[in-house]
Amino acid sequence: MVAPVRILVVDDEALIARLLTTVLQGDGHEAEFRMDGLSALEALKKKSYDLLVTDLRMPGMDGLHLIEEAKKIDPQLDAVVVTAYSSAETAVNALRRGVADYVSKPFSVEEIRGVIRKTIRERSERHRRAEEVEDLSAKFESTSEDLGRHVGDLQFLHELTRMAADRATPLRHCLGVVAKHFEATTTLLLEDGNVVERFGAPEIAALTELAQRAESGRQPISAGDDGMTLIAAPVGRGAVAACREGRFRAGQLQLLATAGRDLTLAVENDRLRTEQRSAYVGIVSTLIEVIEAKDRFNPGHSRRVAELASEFAKSLGLPEREREILETAAKLHDIGKIGIPEKILNKPGKLSRSEFEVVKAHPVLGEQILRPLDFLGEARRIVRHHHERWDGGGYPDGLKAGAIPRPAALLAIVDSYDAMTSDRPYRDGLSEEKAREILREGAGVQWDPELVERFDQL
After folding, report:
1. What's the confidence (pLDDT) of residue 395?
2. Short-list 90, 73, 3, CA closest to 38
3. How far apart are CA 196 and CA 173, in angstroms?
4. Which of 73, 135, 147, 161 has CA 20 to 30 A from 205's CA?
5. DSSP-derived secondary structure for 71-124
6. Which residues of the chain have pLDDT under 50?
7. pLDDT given at position 156
8. Beta strand 78-83 with 51-55: parallel, antiparallel or unpaired?
9. Cα distance between residue 30 and residue 6, in whole Å
10. The Cα angle at residue 443 between residues 441 and 446, in degrees rounded to 5
11. Which residues, including other chains, have CB under 8 Å from residue 407's CB and lie 6 or more apart?
């Protein structure tokens, strides 16, 4: 027994068309007939059918042409050919056109019934297999997506653990990693009820309140609707919270709670860095005084360069953390001159080649002096490379163009500018316009051309 289907019979002989239709209706199928190919196509355009039973030779449009046009309308339509003009060549041609089966006239009622049943069963089996394949594909895609998400979560936790364990990594960078993975617009950290760090969009009062609830309740919680969703989880003496447009996916609240364990370490490291930085302020002040005392022809140079570098960096839109690093490096960029003899450092005339080689060593010496201070790792690179040239002719490493750290390329410009506009024993300081002119002329040769252009607008 096969399930009833919708069948269209096409035969230019009315008696056969009616007979086939009556037999198929008697078997429970929804069957109707047409007596030519054009009217059959019109019927196919108006209503969907499961099976087309057609004569092969008909006036106007033969059966194979009809099948070809019918499949353009419905590619899933099955077809059976019934004809009195049978031959091996005709049968092969019909099968090539996608015909499911072939019946020769004259035929018995049972014969045509058997062919129809066989075609319907094959059609049903084909559809069943297609659905199974579709279900398997959907399950595979779902499994692959789940696996991809789990792998992504593990990679995120690994990266966060690595960053939190690195004492030099700022707390804000850790929050940035959290924001990126959770696709959050804002992430923040609370400690003892107060926001100690935030990343992303401006602070949202509801997010802070949720973090405070997570902190006091020591439980991960969520809030919001389809428009904006907020999640928070306890972290040490505080909490971490994130918000995003739309919903967080399932499991992300628990993932945030897991990430909170790493953030506890990041918070502690940040506290240590703050203490180190406070102690470092006094050290820096002393070191700068020592440098300025030795270089009596250019007092205040490091302070002026630091102020100008900070102003320039702010105009470029650099983040606060990068501006702080640059300002620190600018204050210390000439610290290596401690190792240069005063008779060379304060020589009123032009330096000899050997004397200049001694001066050229100060960026490397400066980096070596700062090396024990691990919280100055990023500043050390700037100190080392602030005398590199865009054309590769600088020192100490002969870096060229984009290989020069961008903060070092920025410092090179402001350092040269202050040196040019300061008085020397062998010349008066140049005017600001003259110094800018020299910078423009050296753009793309000694200095980064893009940064020179931006500095000229400052």
Report:
1. 95
2. 73
3. 13
4. 161
5. HHH-TT-EEEEEES---HHHHHHHHHTT-SEEEESS--HHHHHHHHHHHHHHHH
6. 88, 278, 281
7. 81
8. parallel
9. 5
10. 100
11. 313, 322, 325, 326, 329, 381, 382
